[in-house]
Amino acid sequence: MTNRMKFFLISLVAGTMGAGLWYLNYVRGPEPIVVVHQGALPPSTALAPTPRQPFTPTTRKGYWNPDVVGDFTLPATKTLTFHAAGRNLHVDQDWSKLFRRGFSAIDKSRMVPDEFRSPWNPKPEGWTSRLKPSQRALTIGQGYMADPPFNISWSRAGDNAPGTWYIRPWGDQNFKNSIAVAMQELNGECENFGDCPPDKRLNTYGKIFFDIENEGVNNPMNRQEQANLYVFMMKTLRQWISPYTEVGSIAPVPHNSYGYSRARDYNASPDWLWDMPAKQTDISRQRGMPDDIVGKTFADYADFQMPGTYYLYPEFDYSIPHNDDGARHWLAALLGEQEVNMKLSPKKRIAWHWLFNTQSSDFPNSEKAKNAAPPAIAEGMAIFYWFTGAYGALFWDDANELKPDQPTPADVNLQGLGNDRVYACYEHYIHGLWRLFKHHGDLFNGREKYLNEQTECSVDGGKTWYKFNANQLKTNDLPFVRALVNGNQILVAATQPYGKAGERKEVMMRYVEDGYQFYTTINLTGDEIYLGRATLRKAAGARKKA
Fold this sequence. Notes:
The chain is α/β, with parallel strands linked by helices and 546 residues long. It has 2 domains: 1-91 and 307-546, no CATH class; 104-305, no CATH class. 16% of the residues lie in helices and 17% in strands. The protein has helices at 142-146, 179-184, 189-193, 223-238, 272-275, 298-301, 330-344, 375-384, 424-440, 470-475, and strands spanning 22-25, 34-37, 48-49, 79-83, 105-107, 136-141, 207-211, 246-249, 304-305, 348-353, 392-396, 449-450, 456-458, 464-467, 480-486, 489-495, 504-511, 518-525, 530-535. The strands form 3 sheets. The chain has an 8-stranded parallel β-sheet with strand order 8-7-6-5-4-11-10-9. The protein has a 6-stranded antiparallel β-sheet with strand order 1-2-14-13-17-18, with no helix packed on it. Helix 7 (330-344) packs parallel to helix 8 and helix 8 (375-384) runs parallel beside helix 9. The protein is globular and about 80 Å long. The two termini are 41 Å apart.
């Protein structure tokens, strides 16, 4: 236990709960409050470890095997969209395979001709897509509005907001150059699936993700115009989507930590574009801004927020330290982004997951997206993320179709990209999904309680107990433990991030709430992802809830 550890006050445990007594040790001044145990610990309950599926990760370039695990499905309360690479490897043999490997929807860009209609892919009269609305997702990038026929330059640069039309007058020769028409024409997507409602054309995707990434403005004077357009865009689209369609955007989010998980992030306020109310400016009404959005915010019209982070190479580097406040750390970033944003907004959360490093010339080995997430990181993303209470994820890649076993490109700029990558990280990710949802999907039924940073642990044999957020676990170099409770069942995930092979760590975890008295010890090796479950027992004399 280091002097930097900041302990939190936790519940006083009655003396009847164990052979010894428990006391609160109040330390005055800047020192934290520490719970000190002065007697024997109550009995411990062993967690039942979740099975692992032995498999040999692929070493082939441009290939990954979805059959490293067997069939399983995502709980109905969760959503996971496939917007990644390589569906073409198996879809002709079994189009439904991904839906039995944890995914619940396919992005339009990853669909095959049998699943949608288009001018170059006609279908017979009465045809309907085999994909149910819940299995369809649409990602809208900058090009949709920036390119013809809309030619809305704002889609690529937020500072163009003051010159962007909300609604152009009917008969204007540039009528389509407006946000209103660009959103309305998305209603025609129902024709692509053969299921337009009889009374009105509506978009019949289950999820729509905006990825225009123009939220920043260089001129602060443009902020109000930018907020107005984001509110209008979301409000207008809602007029043309089905009642079950959910809409969100990669940005804005309440807070973007950019992968740093710093202490100051936990004191952040919502980003201005997330909750700035729309209001008329000197020039907005003449460009068609209606009064009915005044006072509304982007957050008012979004069904979900999308906080998350793409990793850079330092997060994958086991040879460097990761414990400073400003250090990049894969698990602290994964959890911290959710811990911060869940406090800033009650909106459901869907993160973007990518298993390769994103590009940045400011970080070593990050100039190209060529480095795959190490096995424990790929598996851990698929497990720990869901312990935050998140609603879903979008599994993304900058590549689409893969061609296995291609020779190394002669062009050095293409080496390590696309078909030149080894995609074993996908197999580890799906293995993590399988471990969690194949064996514990029953716990994700909407009645579960996520402990997050209220997960209570000890690393000194139960002498002191702490509840830490992700940043505090990182800076104190402690094992990460997260738990959820559903009825009398508890599910626990644990790991020592960046642990060396053969290195052993022991951490105790307890849950002494709701009349339960649960103590357990978890033994970790290296950076393995531990997952275990147990049945909670009521403490002696505890009353049942009425």
